[in-house]
Amino acid sequence: MITKSDEKKDFNTIYEIINDASIAYKGIIPEDRWKEPYMSRDELETQIKEGVQFWKYEEDRKILGVMGIQFKNDVTLIRHAYVRTIARQKGIGGKLLQHLIEKSKTPVLIGTWKDASWAISFYEKHGFRLLSDEEKNRLLKIYWTIPERQVETSIVLASDTWENN
Q: Does domain 2-158 have CATH number 3.40.630.30?
């Protein structure tokens, strides 16, 4: 079942899932971008204060996956898409993504690591297309607040409703 998360009540679980699932990036993303924990509690709190709304996928009262959505002017950003390591490859990420796409009234953009081939394949399988480096660089500076090094090592994918705004 997919429901909006109560970020106060579910905060520790969201934090746990993000840091459990993000271990997949270790050794894949540039070493200077990796840290443990991958996302600190302060970073998660900041994301929530900045408008990231988390949705959760639950089975038997256990949260197995979380995904954030952030409405920014003329686009919707999918943020922090994570499924517990023990629950991967069961369609949970796809169900969360589809649910959040349906919540969006604007084109959807997703940023991820350039070397995270499994993530890129996942989003392409769900109808997103990889944008050019030029467009990626422009969009990351408009809609995200990330260091220049992360811009260099990231990509952006767009929904089929995206038209080089």
A: yes
